[in-house]
Every structure is written in C-alpha cells, then in structure tokens.
Specification:
13 helices, two-stranded antiparallel sheet, globular
C-alpha cells in the first residue's frame, strides 16, 4: 500500500469518529444555549413588563429572521473552513441592483432574480480566487466587502432609493402575514428546518464537514474539496442576495449603507451556536440559537435603557467569549 493510499484509508476511518465526537459537543452546546435563552426570558419577564408583549416578540423575531438566512450561509461556509466578511455588503448590493432596475421600469420579480444572480456571481468570483488562485478566504472576502460597498455607493451616489411604488404582492414577502404570523418568519422557519435536515442527513452535505475537518485528508479520500469550497462560497453569497431582496420588500427602499457590521453579528451567531472558525463543526440549529440569543440580548438591553454604545461592547464581548471557548476546545482536543 502506498503512502497516499494509507493516508486515505486512515482519513476515511477517522472522519466519522471525529464527526461523532464533535456531534456530541455541538448537541451539548445547543442544549446549553437553550437553557441560557430560557433563563434570559425568565429574568427579563421580571425585569421589564414589555419584554413578553406580542409587539416585542414580533419585533425581536423579525430582527433575526431575515439575518438568519445569512447566518445559515455563513455557518455552512465556516464548516467548510471558509469565512465571508462581505455578507453585509452583498446584501446591500442585491438591494441596490434590484431597486435600481425596478426604478428603470423592470418587473420587481425579474429585477430581484437578476440581483440574486449578481450576488451568486460575487460568490463565484470569491470562490475562484480561493480555489484557483489560492488566496485566503479572509483576504478575498475583505476585498470584496469593500468593492461591493463601493459599487452600492457608485450606483446610488450614496443616497437611498425610494421604492414606494413596489406592487403589494411583492411587498408581501417582507411585510405580509400568514394569519397573525409574518410571512418572513414562516419562510424563515421552513428554510431553517430544510437546511438543518440536509446538513445533518445529506450525504452530499457531509462532504462539507470532511473538507472543513481536514482538507488534505478529504482530498485523499476522493472528495473534490475545491468544488466543495467553491459551492459553499457561492451559496453564502446567494443567500445574502435572497436576504437583500426580502429586506428591500420589507422596508420599501434600497439603502447603499445597509448591512454595515452585519458580518460580525452573523459570524458571532454561528460561532456561539457551535460553528468553528477552524472548520469541520457546526449546525444550522445551533447557529440560529446563537442568533436568537443575540437578538434577546439586544432587545433586553434596549428595554433596560442601556446605552447603544454599551450594547456594541457587550455583543463584542460575547463574540470574544465564544471564539475563546472554541479555541480552548480545539486546543484541548489536540493535547
């Protein structure tokens, strides 16, 4: 047996075992997050009479529902070993492209489809730089974050696009309700359930875990790792485009500065939920729990009249704690 064949055999045997161990750790993380969220709910119920009101619950859910679509894409990308700092800029880019085309007389659905394709093209360009040229995801996405934001400002001259004449059937995806439940939340729940099931059960998505755990070992075992990384990069940007269209329908405008700082919230939610910056670990459900936790914390701080500046510091501290915990776990497993 050659060295390559031996490595492939060891990798094939090792990956399911490692995934099982990480699976138990992630389930413990998810259980812990649920308990923390429930504890916050109990504390805030006594701390503020407005916390458990329907208006606050609706606002809090809407706050993370659309952003949660981006969280799903970021989580899958992190599992594959990548990262995307351009998500906020790509969300704004989709809004601006669709909004500008609509104002020029194009059907809003067609304009939205073109905007989503343009978002996917941004992901394809980043995927090409990473898989073909060999650049690091961090640097590539940082460059595209700046370029996409620049395109938004160039198209709009820095001014928001008012889209008050959007047809009611298009506005429904961002403003409509199914009974008393906003359509955005219904769509989000269905999307998360399907995404989480595929990531946990699909053989094709399992290759993402193997690639993120050990790209070289995955390649030796027959997985086309470059194709996996390219796919996850495009998927993340495409979901940013979808989120941008929903935001546009919700607010009835296209803001060129929208989404600044979104990448930090999205990465924080994914990491808090168990996704690792080292790749190979994470679940959609855990990442959404992370998004819920951040939303509950933000809502609680606002209701307690905590300064918005302190809110940023607290969110940053939560992200630092999550990343430190992730680093500690990986260092402990390596010992």
């Amino acid at each position: 047996m050659t060295d390559t064949q031996q490595i492939a055999a060891e990798a094939t045997q090792f990956m399911p075992q490692r995934r099982s161990v990480l699976g138990r750790a992630v389930r413990m993380r998810e259980t812990g997050l649920i308990l923390v969220i429930l504890l916050l709910f109990v504390v805030m119920t006594f701390a503020s009479p407005y916390f458990l009101t329907w208006e606050n619950m609706r606002a809090m859910t809407m706050a993370f529902a659309v952003e949660g679509i981006v969280v799903v894409g970021m989580t899958i990308l992190l599992i594959s070993g990548g990262i995307d700092l351009s998500v906020g800029s790509v969300v704004a880019l989709a809004m601006v492209i669709a909004g500008a085309l609509f104002l020029q007389g194009m059907d809003p659905w067609l304009a939205s489809a073109i905007a989503i394709v343009a978002s996917a093209a941004v992901g394809a360009a980043m995927g090409f730089c990473v898989t073909k040229i060999g650049l690091h995801h961090f640097i590539v996405s940082l460059a595209f974050m700046v370029m996409a934001r620049g395109v938004c400002l160039l198209f709009t001259q820095g001014r928001p696009l008012g889209l008050y004449t959007l047809p009611p059937e298009f506005k429904f995806i961002g403003q409509g309700s199914v009974g008393v439940i906003p359509f955005v939340i219904v769509f989000f729940v269905i999307f998360v359930v399907i995404s989480d099931f595929l990531l946990r059960r699909s053989t094709a998505f399992r290759k993402i875990f193997y690639t993120g755990s050990n790209e070289k070992a995955a390649a030796y075992s027959g997985i086309r790792t470059k194709r996996v990384i390219f796919f996850t990069t495009v998927l993340c940007s495409t979901l940013c485009g979808v989120a941008g269209i929903i935001y546009m329908a919700r607010f009835g405008s296209a803001q060129p500065t929208f989404g600044i700082g979104m990448e930090l919230n999205v990465i924080a939610a994914a990491v808090i939920g168990g996704a690792s910056l080292s790749g190979g670990q994470g679940t959609i459900f855990g990442a959404i729990l992370g998004a819920v936790l951040l939303s509950v914390v933000s809502s609680s701080l606002a209701l307690l009249n905590v300064s918005v500046y302190w809110q940023d510091i607290i969110r940053g501290a939560i992200l630092l704690a999550a990343v430190s915990f992730d680093y500690y776990l990986h260092k402990r497993r390596a010992m």
